Amino acid sequence: MNEQKPGKVYLVGAGPGDFGLITLKGLQAIEQAEVLVYDRLINENLIYRAPETAEKIYVGKQAANHALPQDKINDLLYQKAAAGKIVVRLKGGDPYVFGRGGEEGIYLAERGIPFEEIPGITSCIAGPAYAGIPVTHRECASSFHVFTGNFKDELRGLNFPNLAALEGTLIFLMGFGNLPYITQGLIYAGKPAATPVAVVSHATRSDQQTVCGTLADIEQKVKEAGLTPPAITIVGDVVNCRGQLNFFEQRRSPGVLVLRDARQSSPFAKMLRGAGFRPVICPVIRIEPLGLTPKLQDAITNICRYTWLVFTSPNGVTLFFRQFFAAGGDLRQMAGLKFAAIGKATAENLQKNGFRADYVPNSQISDSLAKGLTEKLTANDCVLLPRSAIANNNMVPMLAAKCRVDDVPLYDTVVQTSCRNELKTLITSGEVRYIPFTSASTVDGFYQAIGGDLSILADVKCAAIGPVTAKRMQELGITPALTASEHSLDGVLAVLKEDTQN
Q1: CA 326, CA 337: separation in Å to the nearest integer?
Q2: Does the predicted TM-score (pTM) go above 0.85?
Q3: Distance CA 185, CA 163 (A)
Q4: Is the bond preceding residue 128 a cis peptide, omega within 30 degrees?
Q5: CA atoms within 13 A on the CB side of 38
Q6: Which residues share a beta bridge with 436?
Q7: Contact 62, 91 (CB under 8 A)
Q8: Which controlled-vocabulary keywords does the entry list (predicted)?
Q9: How many helices and strands in the chain, by DSSP H and E?
Q10: pLDDT tens string 24-60
Q11: Catalytic residues, which ones?
């Protein structure tokens, strides 16, 4: 019997938090992962870039609370790779900068497991940069030095006399809880109390905050500002550059909350950036494909019996054709079919799969689609309607009044409330100005994620993609301040832009 050929482990740096700071090579590794082992503070949008079939394992650490001890993480990577899997170990920042990536790599190498380290943008550079602080500057510092601020006791801590003698910028990672020890230690070792200091909380993320002061007063200023970890501490004259270089915090565009499935947030986020908005991704729903169910298998096997194939979302198009080909379907079987799409985005996705929509209603509403289609149907027609399992509208009875209709569930929409604390913080802190709801399911997901606490919406404007979504918002007590006239993402973008100009 042949032995199992080992797979491979990729030690991938995810960057400091901003989704856009992942490297292209790192993203490519995530997209081919069979097992994703990820840390705390990883941007959720990266996690959902892994294949749907990938096993996702959280092993995050924070002070005095490890989801999985390091020795267990090492063994987990080994066991999964030894079973022939492609494993991505996704770590914040860079794996080799206080990330224990070196320990994991050595453990794998000693056991004959192939691995590759894909560097990430480390927070010790990106964090200060997003706060408007260059780690070096010809007039301020010709070097920078990075230290961990996370240690068990002073005996295992920092050699302050050596640090105080350094002329470059001093950067402390993971040292928020030890800020008094660091500042007082530097002062006692001879560093001038007036030395500029900055503390950057949640660096590169939408809720980033920066407090500046000196070694003498930074501790008090941080307390007054209510900063929370994770945070980076920068000590040196380069902090004074912040007044001119603070591109990220001073010139922030209006924040727009993106609530869609994380795997589908990127196109909308790209549209928002292009229009001058700042997308804040915080998914409250997750699209779960149902796979090749018996009902779908029967529809695909007997595709020739249908005269119309009707799609009510881009998701439906993507998942239907995925299962069609997986079941051995042949496009020639669809030669006699006509296609209907609920709107522009759905029609465009259909065209990517090789078919033009024969009918698209003027209004992107399920009732409009059904009403327009019934005018084209006869008793001899047969309609296949592959769509969401939670779809709840009048389409089936309206179409069934004219001909046979097979309503086939393709996917379920699952609410995820794990982001509750982050979501409330984003809204109440002023990071978000607009909350566009792009479907009734995002309304339900959002309402559950905030625990029904609508008081947090006092200072934001909520927008609806169309009347169906607006109705669901009103049913739950959410006032749609804006409603798109064109019921699409383009329409949502248009009403947001119009509102900012008023």
Answers
A1: 20
A2: no
A3: 10
A4: no
A5: 22
A6: 463
A7: no
A8: Methyltransferase, Porphyrin biosynthesis, S-adenosyl-L-methionine, Transferase
A9: 20, 22
A10: 999 999 999 999 999 988 887 788 788 878 999 999 8
A11: 39, 61, 174
